[in-house]
Amino acid sequence: MTKPAYEALTPRTLPQRLGTLPALTDRVGPPDGWDVTEVGDGNLNLVFIVRGDAGAAVVKQALPYVRLVGESWPLPLKRSFFEYHALIREEARDPGAVPEVFHFDEDQALIVMEYLDRHIILRQGLIQARRYDGLGRMLGRFCARTLFRGSDLSMKAPEKKADVALFCGNVELCDITENLIFSDPYFDAEMNRHTAGLDAAVARLRADLALKVAAQELKLDFTTRAETLLHGDLHTGSVMVADDGDYRVIDPEFAFYGPMGFDIGMLISNFLMAYMSQPGHESEPGDRATYQDWLLAATDDIWSAFAEAFSRLWHEERRGILYQATLYEDQGHHQAADVALARRLDAIWRDALGFCGVEMHRRILGLAHNADFETISDEARRATCEARALALGTAAIHGRDSISDMGALLELARRTGTEDHL
Amino acid sequence: MTKPAYEALTPRTLPQRLGTLPALTDRVGPPDGWDVTEVGDGNLNLVFIVRGDAGAAVVKQALPYVRLVGESWPLPLKRSFFEYHALIREEARDPGAVPEVFHFDEDQALIVMEYLDRHIILRQGLIQARRYDGLGRMLGRFCARTLFRGSDLSMKAPEKKADVALFCGNVELCDITENLIFSDPYFDAEMNRHTAGLDAAVARLRADLALKVAAQELKLDFTTRAETLLHGDLHTGSVMVADDGDYRVIDPEFAFYGPMGFDIGMLISNFLMAYMSQPGHESEPGDRATYQDWLLAATDDIWSAFAEAFSRLWHEERRGILYQATLYEDQGHHQAADVALARRLDAIWRDALGFCGVEMHRRILGLAHNADFETISDEARRATCEARALALGTAAIHGRDSISDMGALLELARRTGTEDHL
Asked: Which of A259, A388, B20, B223 is the most exposed, fewest CB within 10 Å of its CB?
């Protein structure tokens, strides 16, 4: 029997095509009681919620094109393979941080996974000014655990090199990152768009030649520095949150071996964009001020939890080929190991600042915008907020060597958030 | 018919086993007239010269262990596959710079290639104080062409990522580099050895904690920064030279995607070690002084030819995903492209300084020493020369941000070469 060729699911065909799959029937019940809805609101894929007598599950299926753009932009189904492999690695490295995977079908490019019934997308929560206790700390820990445990600091060298080779196949999704984040925002690329009132700010940004050089240096870092397995798209739309404190990271189909600062920089960037967007959602001037404080505190938590967890792993799980104990602890050179750790964290911080900056720029000038800003219906207010974020992004990139810590970055965000950058 | 299993060749079995191979008979003539000698003096492989009525060729075959150490250190035959793939890429990127490849047999791990009849190993030539016009310039150009054309500055992204994945398989040879160059010299590792008189200098070096941190940062750079396909072992024993000015680079079995500064740093390091070793070969004090001047001039040539050729390629062949013309030249931002180039060259220079330093250390303290020093039979003189090289290596690593150019490095080498570092 040959396998059926790939075919996109629909709510109608899903029960007949997947109705005998134990991964679903075990959890959801028999298919004749299934209720299937398609809820994918992302840029790339189909996402179905399958509800039945016994429970619910999610079926996520890749489409052979970019959903956001349409069939004119083909995108290979194998991204589902990379998402699956990233999910199971993330689960192993930070248990409970991602949805549980029940089944993977490579030919149909589909993953059956846990349905997070009481969760919403974090970005929606931030737009609604909801608070999530411990969220920043959970995300910082997630970064530390996945980034450390996916690197030469932890993995055996043959295993790490084989994994680098595997994820080198994720060419097309890397291409999206490479172009849309690092290049398109810095010139008048075809798929760009921006809020009308930003024209002058955009012209200034694109005339900043040092910025253009820095953005390409960051692109070089992304394409060449295979330090660890990245999530690759760790923004607030890739996090699901419940009010009871259960937080999960989803959608790692952009996974690739890259620099440690990438995920954490992108995450910080999206929190700071949430911060900058708040005045656009106010009913009365200042009524989101205390929520903005919470957002900055959460951003602070991301980095401090990251640094704390990374330091603990450095001391307890440094079993890879880098900075091996034979050279340090076994020689009584504990201080040198601490110096090396501090230098590593500093390097990751500087990288994160740069990636934070380019992510801000592309979300305002490129193809894929953030709902944080997009849902501000008043164009003038939106432009005001976006111009501040652009300025903060530029300052973060130029300040890679001078913004010494998270405190300084948050102070800069506060100041920029009150200025006129139009 | 199944393929015969791998079997190491001998001068006796070679004609019967390879006597029907057109790659050999076409060039050497019929096997009954063959004269076969094994000349491998490297650390890893068998090398045969096959001479016949019509000419000669080389057959290089991998052994399933490290020749230098013996069967107790197994080493996979597939390194021959990586050597072959590196050779054909080097030939494409800098035509004529490597021996011509006539045949590759993956199962027997053998490569049939051009016999360089009038050539000797460069290291032997330098020990004999021979001069080679244009050598530094040829080697600098080789680095520029192979490093630029093997990177994201030139290659298509899918092709480059597939090639990174391919060379990720060269695990065991990378392991040699990772341990023997970046770690073993900095502690009392089992396979280390050094000249007796160096004990005090070695103790000082191993107590330099900042040096130990820097060496691991360089190791991190080597294992993670997949910037370009490296030769991976570009010392003066991997270059063959003829008095008529024909120079070739051989033995790229350590090929791996790594930082651009690695090959060029290793090359500079080996020229500077040749410089430091000269007093050990003098009959009369000072009688190698003008030859030492020639060595420094050749070292200078390596970098200036590299920078010149790299700059030309930057302007003429920058067709990869990095620093694309759409962002620079097409916007009239030629100056930004020049700034970006200058920053790239500066980064490569700083990296090269670091790799230059660790290579000096491992050649004096680690497993694989250089004939430049080893052939100095007077132990005290050898120790004097080696101690200076150790000091220069340390200064190069610590001076990554302060030794601004090749002139400064050469000045440092001159000064260190007259000092007492025992």
From this structure: B20
- For residue A348, how far is the Cα from the chain centroid? 16
Q: Is B128 helix (H, G, I), strand (E, B) or coil?
A: coil
Ranges of residues in chain B whose predicted pLDDT is under 50 = none
- pLDDT tens-digit readout, B244-289: 999 999 999 999 999 999 999 999 999 999 999 999 999 999 999 9
Enumerate the domain spans of chain B: 13-114, 120-416
User: What's chain A's average pLDDT?
Assistant: 96
Q: What is the DSSP letter of A40?
A: -
Give the Cβ contact number of residue B374 at 10 Å.
15
CA separation for the pair A83, A95 (Å, rounded): 17
Alpha-carbon distance B173 to B79, whole Å?
7
Which letter does DSSP use for residue B102 in this model? E
pLDDT digits (tens, 9 = 90+) for B68-79: 788 888 999 999
Counted across chains A and B, CB pairs separated by less than 8 A come out at 133
Cβ of residue A166 closer than 8 Å to a chain B Cβ: yes
Point out the residue among A152, A161, A336 whose CB comes nearest to the CB of B209.
A336
* Closest-CA residue to A249 (of A363, A147, A172, A157): A147
Cβ within 8 Å, pair A223-B322 = yes
The pLDDT value recorded for residue A1 is 54
> Residue B12, exposed/middle/buried by CB under 10 A (0-12, 13-18, 19+)?
exposed
Beta strands (DSSP E) in B153-274 are: 228-230, 239-241, 247-249, 256-258
> Which residue in chain A is spatially nearest to B183 when comparing CA positions?
A327
Domain A120-416: which topology?
Aminoglycoside 3'-phosphotransferase; Chain: A, domain 2 (3.90.1200)
> How many Cβ atoms are within 10 Å of B208's Cβ, its own excluded?
16
Q: Is the fold of B13-114 the same as that of B120-416?
A: no
* CA triple A207-A212-A216, angle to 5 deg: 165
Decide if A408 contacts A350 (C-beta within 8 A).
no
